[in-house]
Design a protein that fits this description.
Elements (H helix, E strand, L loop, with lengths): L6 E5 L2 H4 L12 H5 L18 H14 L4 E5 L2 H4 L9 H16 L3 E7 L5 H5 L8 H16 L5 E6 L1 H11 L10 H25 L5 E5 L4 E4 L4 H11 L13 H9 L4 H6 L9 H7 L5 E5 L3 E6 L5 E3 L18 H14 L3 E6 L16 H19 L4 E7 L18 E4 L4 E4 L1 H11 L13 E4 L1 E9 L1 H6 L8 E7 L1 E2 L2 E2 L1 E2 L9 H7 L14 E8 L5 E3 L3 H7 L8 E7 L5 E6 L4 H9 L3 H4 E5 L5 E4 L5 E2 L4 E8 L5 E4 L4 E2 L2 E2 L4 H7 L20 E6 L3 E15 L5 E12 L2 E4 L3 E4 L5 E15 L2
Parallel strand pairs: 1-2, 1-11, 2-3, 3-4, 4-5, 5-7, 6-8, 7-10, 10-11
Antiparallel strand pairs: 8-9, 12-13, 14-19, 14-35, 15-16, 16-20, 17-18, 20-27, 21-28, 22-25, 22-27, 23-24, 23-26, 29-30, 31-32, 32-36, 33-34, 33-35, 33-36
Helix pairs in contact: 3-5, 7-9, 8-9, 9-13, 14-15
The structure holds beta-D-glucopyranose.
């Protein structure tokens, strides 16, 4: 459970959304300059106007308010406030942020102010930028201005956003502003200066703050998750996460940018690896960098999977072929949220905020004028479930910010990657809240309660088989099942019983038994109460007559059968010979008469037989004498119990002996006189094109006759389906005769097509 005051937010950054790049005295930033360089940005685009948030901020705050967003993480444009980075303060810039902050507060939205999100004032860049040791002073001066003007209303401050990126992509790799490809020596110095600047800003913010403020920092990196839950794999993933990269962009690592800030030291591995390139690092430097902070921000997007290889060394696990990817090609790895935050929390022991997480999707305005973005919903849901899991396992995560509120200028990708909860038409500046925006509104309203834990996955089952003296081989002939012998009487298709449990055939839970799944993932079954999975579905092949039986009700079974459930069941006749009959009920009028007839073996007079035909449904309430006769193939749906009392077995012998009878119990429970079950309900749960065959105390059973297409809605704890004839599709998945599966809870709608007959059942609540 997330705490009541969990902070649900969205994040943005100045250059990406503000526009007004040349207005009201704003100075140039390195991004204004970089975007002008040919071939640097997708289709030569820039952030001069972008979402024009500078003029639309009231509308944007109103959208946030409507969506119930509690906190807004935005960044200041340093050169809007200090056009030259230092010195002259631009009042119009201060005014803009004053108005924004006031508007947020008036709408009950908590501002989280980031000082620097990559847009270094160009004047400072000309002076050497992060390479110049004076940048520590510059950033400190800027922090003082920020604290003096905004800390009367803003309580939460973040110094730097992602030094791994602005140094790595900006100066090592060079695809972001200012587009340099500097060497290790220079970039290590820049990183060191930037970390010192962070420390200086923390000091200045606190010094000039007008109230108690909370200061943090927002680094990022790829996270690492173990391949399995083994101790070795977990340890390998942890080691990998905090290791220094041996190849690729050196800044892409966690410990070089976190250890100094939160622990006061650079990681030993890095000190050794970079030894020949390091700047002078003094004790004073480390003290400056290691300022006490109130929280750790982390921007988390994805991660890798690691296993313990030879000698326990971390080994990269190749991604699965066809792995989920976002529009910009980033892998979708929700588990990194759990493992990443867990590893970070264990090492740094800081309260955490997920300061960014989100996805770029190919969003378009649909024919109905709305923006449907199910992929974003899926992504955010899956990641947020892992945030919750981390919190539940003890990680102190206090808030989460979706990247991002508005589609915006995505750096070198220009406007080609949409990350927003709100669609922006960059020509007209029209905003349209995407489905994910409304989805997030519900998540916030329910404090995460509306998140779906598991994907709505159809649970396909693998049946188990039972051999019986009366069994045959039609389970193979008719359904193609691999049966153990030619006396196989029962296919336990959907079962989670101590005498056998079906296996999950495929998907996330592949290989688990239905019993295990029911115990560990009760949410899939609508969080039903009770220890046992409530229903059992079998196919019975009666090659010979079955003994004549009767079942107890719940009450009798509880007292006499060790707390077991009684048994209510029903039979759907799949096939039977012409003129076939079945035994249902008896002719005794009183208990004395019953006793007498049993004692005198007057079976012919006692037992009631009725004719049956393919497609008949027969309900057998507890206390009903019943037996299946030779040649009948049927689908049985019953309460999950294996308790049955044998009344008469046609005097047959098994292994030379008669099978055990349970006369006393039978006589206790037999209903006198017999009454047939009548389904009185007229209206089917699924409406007119689905027949409701049974609606009794324990279950409902339906027959879906599919010819063409059917769309259904359901709001049941779960539903069992067995295809008994033909084939077709359920939600695009091919299903054939003999398939059994469960639609779990939250499977709110399903689509059937093809030519088939399905018998479905659900537990009665
Ligand atoms: C940055 C954002 C960027 C987002 C998506 C984050 O690393 O902080 O500015 O838009 O990633 O690429």
């Amino acid at each position: 459970m997330l705490k009541e005051d969990f902070v649900w937010g969205v994040a943005t950054s100045a250059y990406q959304i503000e526009g007004a790049a040349k207005e009201d005295g704003k100075g140039e930033s390195i991004w204004d300059v970089f975007c002008k360089e040919k071939g640097k940005i997708y289709e030569g685009q820039d952030g001069e106007v972008t979402c024009d948030h500078y003029h639309h901020y009231k509308e944007d705050v109103a959208i946030m308010k409507q969506l119930g967003i509690k906190a807004y993480r935005f960044s200041l444009s340093w050169s809007r406030i200090l056009p030259d980075g230092i010195g002259h303060v631009n009042q119009a810039g201060i005014d803009f942020y004053d108005h924004l902050i006031d508007e947020l507060l008036a709408n009950g939205i908590e501002p989280y102010l980031t000082m620097f999100h990559w847009d270094l004032p160009n004047e400072l860049h000309k002076k050497g930028g992060w390479l110049n040791p004076d940048c520590v002073k510059w950033f400190g001066e800027y922090a003082k201005v920020v604290a003096e003007h905004f800390s009367d209303r803003v309580k939460n401050f973040i110094t730097l956003n992602e030094p791994e990126c602005f140094i790595g992509i900006g100066y090592v790799e060079g695809s972001n502003a200012p587009g340099y490809k500097a060497g290790l020596k220079d970039t290590l110095l820049m990183a060191h200066n930037a970390l010192k600047a962070h420390g200086q800003a923390v000091i200045e913010l606190r010094k000039y703050a007008k109230q108690k403020i909370y200061v943090g920092y927002a680094p990022t990196c790829g996270m690492a998750s173990p391949e399995t839950n083994s101790k070795e794999d977990i340890e390998a993933a942890r080691r990998y996460l905090f290791s220094i990269p041996k190849e690729g962009m050196w800044t892409w690592n966690v410990s070089w940018f976190n250890d100094p800030v939160f622990l006061g030291t650079y990681p030993e591995e890095g000190l050794q690896q970079f030894h020949d390139y390091l700047p002078t690092i003094t004790k004073e430097d480390m003290e400056l960098i290691h300022q006490p902070l109130d929280f750790m921000g982390q921007n988390i997007y994805n991660g890798v999977t690691i296993r313990a290889g030879r000698n326990g060394e971390p080994e990269y696990v190749e991604r699965k072929r066809g792995y989920d990817r976002t529009q910009v090609g980033w892998p979708v790895t929700p588990e990194c949220m759990y493992w990443g935050t867990k590893f970070l929390y264990e090492r740094y022991k800081m309260p955490m905020f997920i300061t960014e997480n989100g996805i770029a999707v190919h969003d378009m305005i649909a024919m109905d004028g709305r923006v449907h973005d199910p992929d974003r919903i899926t992504f955010l849901n899956r990641y947020l479930v892992e945030v919750k899991r981390a919190v539940e396992s003890g990680v102190d995560i206090r808030g989460y910010f979706v990247w991002t509120l508005l589609d915006n200028f995505e750096w070198d990708k220009g406007y080609s990657a949409r990350f927003g909860l709100v669609y922006v038409d960059f020509e007209s500046q029209k905003r349209i809240v995407k489905d994910s925006g409304f989805w997030y509104q519900k998540v916030i309203e329910s404090n995460g309660g509306s998140l779906k834990k598991a994907r709505n996955e159809i649970l396909h089952l693998k049946p188990i088989f039972k051999e019986n003296i009366w069994g045959g081989k039609r389970l193979k002939d008719e359904f193609g099942y691999e049966i153990p012998s030619e006396t196989t009487g029962e296919c336990w298709a959907v079962c989670a019983h101590e005498h056998g449990s079906s296996l999950i055939r495929e998907g996330t839970y592949q290989g688990m038994t239905l019993s295990e799944l029911y115990t560990t993932h009760r949410e899939l079954f609508g969080n039903l109460k009770g220890e046992q999975f409530p229903l059992l579905v079998k196919i019975i092949d009666a090659n010979h007559n079955l003994s004549i039986q009767v079942h107890p009700d719940d009450e009798y079974a509880r007292i006499h059968e060790n707390g077991s459930l009684g048994k209510m069941e029903c039979w759907y006749i799949l096939d039977c010979p012409k003129d076939a009959t079945i035994i249902i009920g008896h002719h005794a009028k009183t208990r004395e008469e019953l006793k007498e007839m049993i004692e005198n073996k007057q079976w012919k007079e006692l037992i009631r037989e009725i004719p049956i035909h393919k497609g008949d449904m027969i309900q057998i309430n507890p206390g009903t004498v019943h037996a299946i006769k030779e040649g009948t193939l049927l689908l049985e749906t019953q309460e999950n119990s294996d308790i049955t009392y044998r009344l008469y077995d046609y005097d047959r012998l098994q292994n030379g002996k008669p099978r055990e009878l349970h006369l006393k119990q039978s006589m206790d429970v037999i209903q006198i006189p017999h009454r047939d079950y009548v389904n009185e309900k007229v209206e089917s749960y699924f409406g007119s094109n689905v027949e409701e065959l049974i609606d009794c105390k324990s279950y409902m059973v339906w027959r879906f006759l599919v010819k063409g297409e059917q769309e259904h809605k359901m709001n049941l704890p779960f539903m069992i389906m067995s295809v008994i004839e033909g084939n077709g599709f359920i939600n695009g998945q091919l299903i054939h005769k003999g398939d059994h599966f469960i639609l779990p809870h939250d499977y709110k709608s399903f689509h059937l097509s093809g030519a088939m007959t399905i018998i479905a059942s659900a537990v009665k609540q």
